[in-house]
Design brief:
The chain is of the alpha/beta class. It is built from 29 helices and 17 strands. 55% of the residues lie in helices and 10% in strands.
């Protein structure tokens, strides 16, 4: 063996079948599974799949869509395809133990022993009398009316379907549904990023946790449970006895891939007589996901057959082919027609942007189904097969009379996704293709847990087998939280490249530009403040000397340049480079620019001592503001700087306004326009006289400050309370 190379482990547990050469081809099994699924329904399509099998990696997405369209023709088609696909997989995927290989189906029948002890931990918290449904979203914890408003906003924007909004509204309003103390929930992949473990135990559920035997995983699960009103039951290598928490974590866990039959056998014995919900949440990359999904399916299949009224739970991906809604199809067409021009330019430049055109499939009874193809081919055929077999199991199990919760979850920034730089950039740029929205893991998990509650508690949910569906695949249509994938004007799989480009432009180049702009203003206003301080120091800070010595000549050029440069902030707002409204920014900038330009035009006003007040109030404010936002763009925050940003205004705002008012009077009274014949002969000046006209204009200008100063000061007080008084910080860029 070559030095440095590890000896390959012999295959063990759930595996792909080997061909005559001993090679385990994932693509061969993948194409064969889809071929077998349709063979009895459409032999012509099965033949085409066989012909395209050598090119399966490039062709698979086409046949997934055709599989869905064929299933849409009738409920019998959908169930026949699902059963045939599952049968093929269970007969051809193998289970290897001690170098002996057998079909997975056979292994699940042969190995009947239970090699696990059972551990149980009960939480120490009390179950609250009333439960609130809470969803963390954009640094806020939403509940009550705030949550209902956000749900309505998601529906209006097209991020979720109407039925999903209705379901979440009902969960938010039905506190009694959130008492899960009578629920016994098996989590295959208890530590899954998208799984509902923490939600379940926090609402009193009894979770039977199945996960890999890694101590750090079990320490976390046990810790979460102990501080909750729920409980956790889990497999152990030896009896619980008097083991410490650390010892339990060392001995807890199992391997879904290599101990599949034993896990099934153990689950047959726990909480006997209780109705179970089996949630399949475990995930691994690539071909491992197929093996993992097959292991979970083998366990779920046998538990459904052996334990009465067992329910199943899955999370669907939006990057698949589903039966969508007619409304989603219509809105997608409208969004395509009204897409901004720059998206058309990107399409012409060869980024691959294409229209999100739903595929219509007519059923045997005349119904028309709208199939949305959101498959991202780069995910690969193994990912699609792993999710497809879950769809197949879901509709087959529901057809036999069991409750099945299987809802589409949105694109989510989980670690397994964003550790890939390409996906991270694509996710970061998707917000520019409305209504696409990528969610944080905490938000997606809470939302999907809410939909799970809806499915289990509401007798009218699509999960309930007594609810009539036009086609079994409509199970995935209802309550879809697709994150805008269905209603986006452009096909989801074609948005990636353009989204990456928009991410680079808006998050990299724009961020770099805004940082440089903020730093330029920081140093510029620092220079203005330095000049003012130097003048004060030269006069030994003598107020009389300062009053007789105008600073204008020393600061005019710098002050005018950096203040006029602030007009760029209006441009930033118009281009949506920052979150502030352009009109608000324009009013703030214009009030200062008009004053500065007024002083430029009025030599007499340049000797006004109030200019010192302007220099210090504006200078210190801008030094702090621009440095604060500059660091924020880099994701950095200095507590002292934050405190100064939201505290100095208490003194500097009043000082600045008083100084501005002092300068305004000097400018108005000395404007050269008063000596203009046309102005002097105007009705306004003739009626009031020059002196009174000057006073009237000054008072009118002062009245502009009456509504705006309290409004801006009050806004800053509210921001101060939010930021320094315990409120969570926002992440919007601003200047």
């Amino acid at each position: 063996m070559a030095k440095g190379k590890r000896e390959a482990r012999p295959p063990e547990g759930v595996e792909f079948p080997a061909d005559d050469t001993g090679r385990r081809s994932t693509l061969s099994l993948n194409s064969a599974a889809f071929q077998a699924s349709v063979a009895k329904v459409d032999s012509g399509m099965a033949s085409q799949i066989g012909q395209d099998a050598p090119k399966w990696r490039k062709k698979y997405s086409k046949y997934v869509v055709e599989n869905v369209k064929l299933s849409s023709r009738s409920p019998d088609n959908a169930l026949a395809i699902a059963n045939a696909g599952l049968d093929y997989l269970h007969d051809n995927m193998v289970f290897i133990r001690n170098e002996r290989s057998m079909p997975l189906r056979m292994a699940m029948h042969e190995f009947k022993s239970d090699s696990f002890a059972t551990g149980t931990i009960k939480g120490g918290a009390r179950l609250p009398k009333t439960h609130n449904y809470e969803v963390p979203y954009k640094n806020k914890m939403l509940s009550g009316d705030d949550l209902l408003v956000q749900i309505d906003r998601w529906v209006h924007q097209g991020v979720i379907e109407v039925s999903c909004g209705h379901a979440l509204n009902e969960v938010a309003r039905s506190s009694e549904w959130l008492d899960l103390s009578g629920l016994h929930f098996v989590m295959l992949g208890a530590s899954s990023a998208m799984g509902p473990f923490e939600f379940l135990v926090s609402h009193g559920a009894n979770v039977i946790a199945v996960d890999i035997d890694r101590p750090h995983i079990w320490k976390k699960l046990i810790s979460i449970t102990k501080s909750s009103p729920g409980s956790i039951t889990f497999p152990l290598k030896k009896p619980q006895g008097s083991q410490t928490e650390a010892e339990l974590a060392e001995n807890a866990g199992c391997n879904l891939l290599t101990q599949t039959p034993e896990i099934r056998n153990w689950l047959m014995t726990v909480h006997k007589g209780k109705q179970l919900v089996i949630g399949s949440y475990a995930y691994l990359d690539g071909a491992l996901f197929v093996k993992l999904s097959m292991a979970m399916d083998a366990i779920a299949k046998d538990l459904v057959e052996s334990r009465k009224n067992t329910a199943l739970a899955y999370l669907c991906t939006p990057t698949d082919c589903h039966i969508g809604t007619p409304a989603a199809s219509a809105v997608a067409s409208r969004n395509y027609r009204s897409a901004p021009a720059w998206q058309s330019v990107l399409a012409l430049l060869g980024t691959g942007l294409r229209r999100n055109g739903f595929r219509k499939a007519q059923s045997d009874d005349g119904s028309v189904y709208h199939c949305v193809d959101a498959i991202v081919p780069e995910q690969g055929p193994n990912y699609i097969l792993a999710k497809r077999l879950q769809h197949w199991r879901a509709i087959v199990t529901r057809d036999r009379g069991n409750v099945v919760s299987s809802n589409i979850a949105p694109a989510t920034r989980t670690f397994s996704v964003v550790h890939n730089l390409s996906f991270k950039m694509a996710y970061g740029g998707m917000k520019h293709f409305r209504p696409l929205e990528v969610f944080d893991q905490e938000t997606s998990s809470a939302v999907m847990a809410g939909l799970l509650v809806w499915d289990l508690k509401c007798t009218n949910s699509a999960a309930n087998p007594n609810t009539e569906l036009g086609n079994p695949l409509c199970l995935f249509t209802e309550t879809s939280f697709h994150g805008g994938a269905w209603r986006c004007g452009h096909k989801y799989s074609t948005v990636g490249t353009s989204a990456v480009l928009m991410y680079i432009l808006t998050e990299v180049l724009v961020t770099a530009y805004l940082f440089l702009y903020n730093m330029l203003q920081f140093f510029g206003w620092g220079y203005v403040a330095y000049i003012a301080l130097s003048l004060c120091k030269a006069a030994n800070f003598d107020l009389g000397a300062l009053a007789s010595q105008s600073p204008w000549g020393a600061v005019a050029l710098s002050l005018r340049f950096f203040q006029d440069l602030a007009f760029m902030e209006v441009v930033h707002s118009l281009l949506r480079m920052t979150s502030s409204h352009w009109m608000t920014v324009l009013i703030q900038v214009l009030s200062r620019v008009l004053l500065v330009e007024g002083i430029v035009m009025t030599p007499e006003a340049q000797a006004n001592p109030f200019i010192y007040g302007l220099l210090f109030a504006w200078g210190i404010t801008e030094i702090v503001r621009y440095s604060f936002y500059g660091l924020k763009l880099l994701g950095r925050e200095i507590p002292l700087l934050t405190w100064l940003r939201y505290s100095l205004f208490l003194v500097l705002y009043p000082l600045g306004v008083a100084s501005e008012l002092g300068c305004v009077r000097s400018v108005v009274y000395n404007l050269p326009y008063w000596s203009n014949d046309q102005v002097a002969s105007s009705a306004f000046v003739k009626t009031l006289g020059v002196a009174n006209a000057k006073l009237a204009v000054t008072v009118l200008y002062y009245f502009v400050y009456v509504p705006f100063f309290p409004m801006l000061f009050g806004h800053m007080l509210a921001q101060r309370k939010k930021i320094l008084g315990g409120g969570r910080k926002g992440k919007n860029k601003s200047v």
